[in-house]
Amino acid sequence: MIENYEAPPRQRIKGRASLANETPRFEPNTRVNIHDGWDLVDDDLPVLRTEVRKERVRTAINRVKSPDLPFDRSLNPYRGCEHGCIYCFARPSHAYLNLSPGLDFETRLIARPNMAEVLEGELRARRYKVAPMAIGSNTDPYQPIEKEYEIMREILDVLARFNHPVAIVTKGNLIERDIDILAPMAAKGLVRVGISVTSLDRDLSRKLEPRVPAPARRLRTIQRLSEAGIPVRAMVSPMIPGLTDHELENIMQACKDAGATAASWIMLRLPREVSPLFQAWLAEHYPAKVEKVMGKLRDMHGGKEYSADWNKRMRGEGPYADLLSARFRQACARLRISENAADLRCDLFEVPLESGRQMALF
Question: Is the CB of residue 190 less than 8 Å from the CB of residue 184?
Fold first, then answer.
């Protein structure tokens, strides 16, 4: 049983997006906080800190079977994400750890320090067939704890030695640390990077994504990667109707000016526990926009807050979704920015000799 499902006093959650820590959906019992009669001062309580546990994985590559995703395999160096984006569709995955998709997702993280070692073994298997690897499709591989654990850097070192293609998605500027590995891979056509920019409004971004680099800092990351020859896709995601949708063209222009060569967008998705978490956040920070935002989302999902139907869940349906798609296409045409990311090469993949092994004669 996990303790402290309910949100602690506001003084403890400074810098966090979630306002609650609801019971994981697989738990049979629920715990709630009640006043015990002791008049303790909330200010005396410590700030809620990030906890990191280590997990030794047996398998590294996650096989993906979703027909509306452009990849069939991925890596997840971390479970949970300290960036704490309130809209993150990966939050429900924390329930499989008997942890809450709320504050636990942001503060109780799992690092997988042996992933690079296991990955190398899987790439050496004779049955392995190469295809682009996706990293960052669930939680951000360049979230703050990567600075200490360097799991992503170790993974990139393995992929580079095998000439294995990789597509990376991140909001973290820590990716600049690995330009020394990424730039040579990019020169071979083995890597592309997607940088997510949700809003250019610093204040709104800080509320939505409390531990993510500011928008201007992310634009500098796009610039630095582009200057190093690494192709960057601007991910204008998620588009939040009635809150960030008016920024679509401005975000694309800013990313293009920074060096992005491709762009994509995704509508706000609210699966499972994400919906009540996001609605509580919206009511707290933008109460006047609740009906507008949620009304448009329901219009796009047949009256529901979210629909998980393949090929519809990313964009929704109806007039508003069609309008946003049209605006995106027009912006791409005007800015001469591609809607499709660059293809990655798979023909260079080669299993290197293991350390200490004699070179083959033929």
Answer: no
- List Cβ neighbours of 269 (8 Å cut-off, separation of 6 or more): 87, 89, 238, 306, 313, 314
Written as six digits, the tokens of 45 are 């309580």
E strands, 158-314, are 166-170, 191-196, 232-239, 262-267
Q: Which CATH number goes with the domain that contains 105?
A: 3.80.30.30
How does pLDDT run across 174-201, given as a tens digit for each residue?
999 999 999 999 999 999 999 999 999 9
Could you give the CA distance from residue 335 to residue 330 in angstroms, rounded to a whole number? Answer: 9
222: its two tokens: 């796009």
- Provide the domain limits for residue 281: 10-35+48-335
- Into how many domains does the chain fold? 1
Q: Is 356 part of any domain?
A: no
Domain-located, residue 279: yes
Record the tokens describing residue 171, joined without a space. 């909001």
- Strand, helix or coil at 62? strand
Q: CB within 8 A of 322, min separation 6: which ones?
A: none
Whether residue 191 lies inside any domain: the answer is yes
- Is residue 108 helix, strand or coil? strand
pTM listed for this prediction: 0.90
Give the SS3 label for residue 289: helix
Domain assignment present for residue 266? The answer is yes
The predicted pLDDT at position 44 comes to 59
Q: What pairs with residue 194 in β-bridges?
A: 169, 233
Q: What is the pLDDT of residues 318-351, one digit of tens each?
A: 999 999 999 999 999 999 999 988 899 999 999 9
Q: Looking at this protein, which amino acid is placed at residue 31?
A: R
Q: Check: CB of residue 5 under 8 Å from CB of residue 21.
A: yes
Of the candidates 191, 184, 154, the residue with the CA atom closest to the CA atom of residue 170: 191
